[in-house]
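lol so apparently i was supposed to do this last week
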Amino acid sequence: MELRRYILKRLVQITIIFFVILTVLFLLFRLAPGDPVSRMVDPDMTPEDAEQLIHQLGLDKPLGIQYLVYLKNFFTGHFGISFHYGEPVVDVIWNRLPNTILLFTTSIILSALVGIFLGKIASWHKGEKTDSVMTIGALVTHTLFLPWLALILIWVFGYKLGWFPINGMISEEVWLDPDAGFIAKGLDIGYHMILPLTTLFLIHFGAYLLIMRSSMLETLKEDYILTARAKGLEEKDIRDRHAAPNAALPVVTSVGLSLAFSINGGALTETVFTWPGIGRELVFSVSQNDYPLAQASFLLIAIVVLISNLVVDVLYAYLDPRIRY
Amino acid sequence: MALLEVEDLCIDYKTKNGYLKAVDGVSFSLERGASLGFVGESGCGKTTIGMGLMGMLPPNGVVRRGRILFEGEDLLRVSAEEMRRVRWRKIAMIFQAAMNALNPVQRVGEQVAEAMLVHNPSLGKEKALKAVEELFELVGLQTDRIRDYPHQYSGGMKQRAIIAMSLACRPSLIIADEPTTALDVIVQDQILAEIRALQKEFNIGIIFISHDISIVADMCHDIGIMYAGQLVEYGPREDVFDSPAHPYTRALLSSFPTLTGKRTDLVPIAGETPDLVHPPEGCRFYDRCQEQIPACREKVSRWVAISPGHKALCCRCEMDGR
Ligand SMILES: Nc1ncnc2c1ncn2[C@@H]1O[C@H](COP(=O)(O)OP(=O)(O)O)[C@@H](O)[C@H]1O
Ligand code: SF4
Ligand SMILES: [Mg+2]
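anyway here it is w/ iron/sulfur cluster bound
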């Protein structure tokens, strides 16, 4: 089937892109001014431990060999030891990954769905008050400065009103309670996620709303809309069944394109809300000069973005048969 | 009773310069199973008539005057909801093939079935798809293409699918607006033959719109020549072609040396069409007419009967008595 060939093609592309990222990161960390050993090996280590780590990372070998060792280490999960945590980087990051994926994907899916839905409604009411309110709202939220928005939310809903927790991902009392079941724990995470999720959602949904709105207005001029109307369909069905599925395609494309750009906001949000994810680890490790951790965080974020991109592409192919067949 | 009787139809478009009189005082009638063709240069108001009949004018379009009696009922007086139920069930429309008249993300068969299900939901999807199979056979499409998407079809196949769709509810009138304009000549002939055969088989009234006079000559019993929003000559095919009365009709015909011979495209007649926001008082063809006399400019043209059922809108016909 064509779809399989399409996915295969995208997989190959993604693999190539990933190797490019992997290589760039290698060069960045090894060829940057200064001593690579001091960047990868904690100065506080005992000489024996340092020796062993240098050997494991291949830092005592020529650059070409170092690169091969680097690749081997990557595929076997050896990223070195975090300066700050003193633990293997992979252990630090592995625990953070699900938290980031949870916040990242939920916020993207939510903002895309809500953006599509509201954009559709705005286009129905083009030129009316509903439309102006939505369009202006989307523009304003989209241009907000994220840390500022996060702090406002914390101040209003966390501090003043005290409705939601403002940091972390879980409450100790729930997770230490032996009687707390799966559902209680899940609800607790959801509860902690509300403010960071709202922050990311508010920043992102506006763009999708605006794209959907203008895409809807364009689609409504298409000839197949005339056919649908001539067929005697009700306006509601013309919009929902014929216009919206076509109009949503550019939104899906833009979700794919914006994934890479949402890293910044994601990392900032995780940091402000002390959400235990990779983004926060990245910000932290960079500020602490914890190079091994920073390098691994970069790589993992790149993987998350690339895989999300693949998912979006497959979704697009599913929605647009012109790609599939 | 005629299937369709249109009286003094006037349709305007609201533009920033004022009301553009796209259709001005057009009257005609169509018997059950008969065919009528409208010919004229691009911009003369053919599509506007079609859209007006469907009740599908764009938001800035208004019917200023007139009556559209369809099966005895004035379509300009019925509610929007009633009009919706007339569409496709009673009057179907075939659009230009170049237009992507089919939804690219839906299967062709489902789009055809939808036309039935809109007006008869109790039919059920399964039975509707069965009926689509019959329609596909009718128009010469392979039934194993029912589940294909539009982009997997050629231009001719798409147009066949639309024809199949137009027959879905067995309408009594089909409006075909330049249905073959984007197709190559061979496919065009096949499609036209198909439409003719089906029209006969199901006794459907057809309004055929084209800028190509030779196509209309092949297709229609009656012909209306349009110029700048007005009907300028109207009559049975033979009369209009054998003894064209209006200078515009003659100019059109002379650009087709032999109607039965090789088909050539319409050679534009020198000059421009008048401004339809401020149309001239007298004859609208005046500036381009080879036979103009000063009177044409001042006098509002009146219909002149040439022979029974054949008439023209021209001062000279009036005076010459031809
Ligand atoms: N939506 C519209 N708004 C304003 N003017 C229009 C609109 N649609 C068509 N017109 C004008 O009305 C006239 C008739 O157009 P149309 O019916 O499409 O002609 P045809 O189908 O014969 O080419 C043209 O002068 C065209 O420019
Ligand atoms: S009325 Fe006069 S100008 Fe107009 S078409 Fe007839 S002869 Fe020509
Ligand atoms: Mg037209």
